[in-house]
């Protein structure tokens, strides 16, 4: 069977369109999950679904989990019948078509859009050789009401990503109080004296699925303690190792952290990514990635 990527379905209908009155389009009133499809399944789906359910509850969006699961199974069955081994599956859940105005009426039916996109294998050059990262001028707003969720408003990340071309793989984001939070599409971990540290996301940032997997599964397997804390830029610069993570590209060691916001460029280099490599091996085993 041949399927051309990308393709989309809306409320279970492949090729259907979203209304211009949909609140996800008009107000960013919704959520999304970006999942890695690998060898016939979404290995981390249970974590994606947990975040989607919890975030929908926080935003009071009615979420028909059985419908989504059935719809997703249909799509994955179609993918299994093709030669596609890896893909990105993006799920967008909006409050639905609600007309004009901020008030959301109780009878609004949610919209579920699923898109399937091409994806690279896990072991990309960035994964194997590490990346250079810059510090962004753009700051993240402090807003505990939306913190942790992957909501549809990504304007701060868009403005941050516009600050560079392709000379860096990622950009590090601080909040308006100066705490290091995350990168534009990934979470950050600091390794110091054999311990892991990652940002407290109570005020802003996205609580990533791969971040959760590292905290709850991979790090404990290696007997590594993980501390969730407020992190200053000086604390990050003093790390033995840095690495980034997300559910699509896995774990990227950071080779250099570049601060070019002022006339004097501050360039910080890090040690060999011993801990990141150990975590990568566990991740590959979990995802059934073989040589």
Structural features, described:
- Its cofactor is pyridoxal 5'-phosphate.
- GO terms for molecular function: 4-amino-4-deoxychorismate lyase activity.
- It catalyses: 4-amino-4-deoxychorismate = 4-aminobenzoate + pyruvate + H(+).
- With 291 residues, this protein is of the alpha+beta class.
- The protein folds into two domains: 7-118, D-amino Acid Aminotransferase, Chain A, domain 1 (2-Layer Sandwich), CATH 3.30.470; 125-286, D-amino Acid Aminotransferase, Chain A, domain 2 (Alpha-Beta Barrel).
- Helix content is 27%, strand content 30%.
- The chain is built from eight helices and 14 strands.
- The chain has helices spanning 23-27, 45-59, 65-80, 125-129, 155-161, 209-221, 233-237, 274-286, and strands spanning 7-10, 13-14, 30-38, 86-94, 111-118, 131-140, 170-175, 180-183, 187-192, 195-199, 226-229, 241-246, 250-259, 266-269.
- The strands form two sheets. Strands 6, 7, 8, 9, 10, 11, 12, 13 and 14 form a nine-stranded mixed beta sheet that branches. A five-stranded antiparallel beta sheet has the order 2-1-5-4-3, covered by helices on one side.
- A hairpin with a 2-residue loop joins strand 9 and strand 10.
- The longest helix has 16 residues, at 65-80.
- The chain is globular, with a radius of gyration of 20 Å.
């Amino acid at each position: 069977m041949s399927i051309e990527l990308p393709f989309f379905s809306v409320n279970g209908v492949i090729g259907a369109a979203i209304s211009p009155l949909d609140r996800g389009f008009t107000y960013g009133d919704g959520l999304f999950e970006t999942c890695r499809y690998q060898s016939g399944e979404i290995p981390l789906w249970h974590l994606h679904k947990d975040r989607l359910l919890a975030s929908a509850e926080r935003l009071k969006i009615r979420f028909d989990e059985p419908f989504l699961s059935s719809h997703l199974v249909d799509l994955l069955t179609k993918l299994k019948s093709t030669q596609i081994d890896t893909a990105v599956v993006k799920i967008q859940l909006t409050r639905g078509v609600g007309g004009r105005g901020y008030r959301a009426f109780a009878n609004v039916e949610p919209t579920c859009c699923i898109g399937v996109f091409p994806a690279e294998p896990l072991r990309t050059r960035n994964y194997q050789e590490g990346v250079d990262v810059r510090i962004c001028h753009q700051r993240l707003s402090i807003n505990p009401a939306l913190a942790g969720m992957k909501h549809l408003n990504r304007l701060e990340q868009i403005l941050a990503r516009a600050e560079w071309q392709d000379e860096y793989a990622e950009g590090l984001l601080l909040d308006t109080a100066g705490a290091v939070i995350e990168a534009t599409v990934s979470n950050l971990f600091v390794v110091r004296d054999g311990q892991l540290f990652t940002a407290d996301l109570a005020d802003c940032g996205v609580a990533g699925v791969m971040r959760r997997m590292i905290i709850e599964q991979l790090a404990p397997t290696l007997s590594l303690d993980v501390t969730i804390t407020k992190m200053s830029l000086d604390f990050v610069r003093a790390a033995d190792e840095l690495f980034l993570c997300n559910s699509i590209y896995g774990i990227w060691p950071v080779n250099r952290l570049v601060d070019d916001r002022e006339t004097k460029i501050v360039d910080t280099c890090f040690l060999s990514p011993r801990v990141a490599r150990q975590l990568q091996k566990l991740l590959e085993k979990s995802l059934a990635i073989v040589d």
